[in-house]
Amino acid sequence: LKVGAIVLFLVLGVLAIVGWLPDTDPVGLANLTGQGGFLPNGWSGVVSGVLAVVFAFGGLEVVTIAAAESDDPARNVARAVRSAVWRILLFYVGSMLVIVTLLPWTSMEPGESPYVAVLDAIGVPAAGQIMNVVVFVALLSALNANLYGSSRMVFSLAERGEAPKGLLKVSGGGVPRRAVLASVAFGFVSVLLNLKWPDSVFLSMLNAVGAVLLFVWGLIAVSELRLRRRIEREAPETLTLRMWGFPWLTWVALAAMGAVLVLMLCDAGARPQVLWSAGATGAVLLVAWARELRARRD
């Protein structure tokens, strides 16, 4: 439903841009160059947008976890990564391009959905109700994907001895049911805590999670730099999925993530996310270091 809605939105948007819908005139680039020109408020708006995009794409790596459980992991992981790239370009970047082309940036109101605003502008009836249904389905899909990813992470932690061994029990179909139930239970606990302290719990969790995404992606990039060189030396035949542009593209990605962290530190609203995330990451690394020392002594 959500993919179909975005595809329909893109089709209607392109038709409206070229003036092929009833009662519409070609828009051209007027909304991109007018009202103060391109980037009318400078790069500060770009910075805020980048921070929002980073948070929105958190958990994208779940697609590789799902592919790794398939019958042909090497092939399906590569396919999942490639499909994620073109889906982002088409659905996210494409829809944003349609929105900023059709609507002047001065017409947007805080809290108003830009998708609903576009559909209203081109005369789609009941646009708000339609998008509310789509958003609700999208939220359920995101919840399902995150429960899947969190349960597999809990199972992985239990395999390494970093979570209770009882979470390793799986069903006949290989589903880690106890890990799934544990993830659901923690989800309900967080909901109850948010009901009790609505002004603090969600904000604290958001601040703790924000920059952690960048730290996680950074660790993934560093792991690729180290592990790929090792595999190329020791067992090159097992390296079936090769990232193009290695290692330069990986270094570019690390530099980009570092730049985003610097921008977050320079932004008063985002600075707490970096500090909370750095504290949470530091605590995890400290525990891991202590466990490693104890394992070496034993």
Description:
- This protein has 298 residues and is an all-alpha fold.
- It has a domain at 200-298.
- 70% of the residues lie in helices and 0% in strands.
- The protein has helices at residues 2-17, 30-33, 44-56, 62-68, 73-102, 114-121, 127-159, 177-196, 201-210, 212-234, 248-266, 271-297.
- Helix 1 (2-17) packs across helix 5 (73-102), helix 9 (201-210) packs across helix 12 and helix 11 (248-266) crosses helix 12.
- The chain is globular.
- The N and C termini lie far apart (54 Å).
- The model has no long low-confidence stretch (mean pLDDT 84).
Total count of strands = 0
Q: Report the sheet with the most strands, covering strand number, pairing sense and barrel closure.
A: none
Kindly report the average pLDDT value.
84
Alpha carbon gyration radius = 23 Å
What fraction of the residues are assigned to beta strands by DSSP? Answer: under 5%
Low-confidence stretches: none
Described by the principal axes of the CA atoms, the overall outline is: globular
Secondary structure class reads mainly alpha
Helix share, percent: over 70%
Distance between the termini: 54 Å
What is the ordering of alpha helices and beta strands? Answer: HHHHHHHHHHHH
**Total DSSP helices:** 12
Supply database-style keywords.
mainly alpha; 70% helix; single chain; 298 residues
